[in-house]
Specification:
heterodimer, A: mainly alpha, globular, B: mainly alpha
Chain lengths: 226, 232
């Protein structure tokens, strides 16, 4: 119970700071929409090929926007040395991790909720209504996996000289299974494939999420050590 | 005045000559003794280097993970130096795998590259450890560099089986153009491969010791610079 209170406090702090300045969420949203525009120019939205590359475009957009947010997650705590205050909190280090993870997850989810309908509208792509529950599940698992590793590595890279450049380079290779699983599952679901065809991808996403939610319990204390 | 560190110890000398001998024997076996593979011809000899390099790279990354765990437990920089040297060797030999693979692939599959699960996993592995080396170069303080790279060394190694699984599943859904079945090997080929693996393992330990020595010299050099007060 103590852990949950700690997590909630950190999430509230992050969200309160964010909704006062709105600097992170607004740039993530604008960036995500710009990505869609770039895709519209890169792939002619009237061509049939859109149906095949649509899941990939959606996830590229989500992931790029997520990296933008993750980059700021711990770097913003460097101002006035807030990170020291956070570390001095009388809670386990993993509480800080899960608090930050939840905040990041909320940001990315907001971006996804806004951009996915925009994708469908701008590419004139009809998302079948019965596919929505499965789609929500895959987006949830994919986002969780990506932000779980992302939050961890963002904390690690925030100490580096050029953390904005370092994070994507160390994050993308590690999250290959998430990207692959999320894109493949989304493609199968959107094309109306049988459940058996995408359920293995959900399993891989679930396994990845489980592993990278447990690892920080052991390793996060080394990342935040002063 | 301290004893200079660059005089090779007995272990180094034995290891150096042992490696030289083993590599010579392996080269003789590969180029003079073992018969060519029937269908592929001389190009098939590349497997003795390709497979041995892959083995060496995986072994090196395993050492990185083990030494990273020991470093986080003991905070002894000695282990950090070993994992750094091992990661460098691992990246070097993964590069060799990625270069020799396409050469062989071009000859036997008629394609430089296919997104086969082994090739793709090796490529991702290469990127993960490039990231490891980049983390090392982005920190100045020894302690931070060691701690963060150790954490990433563990994460990277945990990630590899998941990458492997997901990519294999991806390739089984899509039709595989190239059948990934190996070819039956003649006993002489197996023997040559084993000698080659042994020689590469010795080479790994030789390079590892050299890498550790270079690291020690580097940190000694840094210390001397600080003592002289002409740092930077």
């Amino acid at each position: 119970m103590h852990m949950l209170t700690g997590i909630r406090a950190i999430v509230q702090k992050d969200l309160a700071a964010e909704f006062r300045t709105r600097e992170l969420l607004s740039s993530m949203l604008v960036f995500a929409v710009l990505t869609i525009i770039v895709f519209v120019f890169a792939f002619d939205p009237t061509k049939a090929v859109i149906r095949q590359v649509f899941p990939g475009m959606v996830w590229v957009c989500f992931i790029f926007a997520a990296v933008l947010g993750l980059n700021r997650s711990f770097v913003s705590e460097k101002t006035n040395d807030c990170i020291t205050g956070l570390i001095l909190c009388p809670v386990d280090r993993s509480v800080i991790y899960f608090g930050k993870l939840t905040a990041n997850f909320i940001y990315v989810t907001i971006v996804e909720i806004v951009t996915l309908p925009l994708f469908a509208v701008l590419f004139n792509y009809k998302i079948p209504l019965q596919a929505v529950p499965a789609l929500v599940l895959v987006i949830f698992l994919g986002t969780l996996g990506f932000t779980a590793v992302g939050t961890f590595l963002a904390a690690l890279s925030s100490n580096a000289r050029s953390s904005e450049v370092l994070l994507p380079v160390i994050l993308f290779p590690v999250t290959v299974p998430v990207v692959l699983g999320a894109v493949q599952a989304t493609a199968a679901i959107l094309s109306g494939a049988l459940t058996a065809e995408w359920v293995s991808w959900v399993k891989i996403l679930g396994a990845f999420d489980a592993v990278f939610l447990v690892v920080p319990f052991v390793l996060f204390e080394y990342v935040l050590d002063m | 005045m301290k004893e200079p560190v660059n005089t090779p110890s007995l272990t180094d000398r034995v290891l150096g000559w042992g490696t030289f001998l083993a590599v010579t024997v392996a080269l003789y076996l590969v180029f003079m003794w073992v018969p060519n593979e029937k269908i592929q011809g001389p190009v098939s000899k590349i497997i003795y280097f390709h497979i041995a390099s892959a083995w060496l790279a995986f072994f090196a990354f395993f050492v990185v993970m083990v030494c990273s765990i020991i470093y986080l437990k003991t905070k002894d920089l000695k282990w950090d130096i070993i994992s750094y040297a091992s990661a460098e060797i691992g990246v070097l030999f993964t590069t060799i795998v990625l270069v020799t693979g396409p050469i062989w692939g071009r000859a036997s599959w008629n394609a430089w590259w296919t997104w086969d699960h082994r090739l793709t996993t090796t490529l991702i592995l290469w990127f993960i450890y490039i990231a490891y080396l980049m983390i090392r170069s982005s920190f100045n303080e020894e302690e931070k560099k060691a701690r963060f790279s150790a954490v990433f060394g563990i994460i990277g190694f945990i990630d590899v089986p998941i990458v492997w699984m997901s990519i294999r599943w991806w390739r089984t859904i899509h039709p595989n153009i190239v059948s990934s079945g190996g070819f039956a090997m003649d006993p002489s080929m197996v023997q040559t491969l084993l000698v080659s693996l042994g020689a590469f393992t010795l080479l790994y330990f030789y390079l590892l010791r050299k890498g550790i020595l270079i690291q020690k010299m580097r940190s000694e050099f840094e210390l001397l610079k600080q003592e002289l007060g002409t740092g930077r």
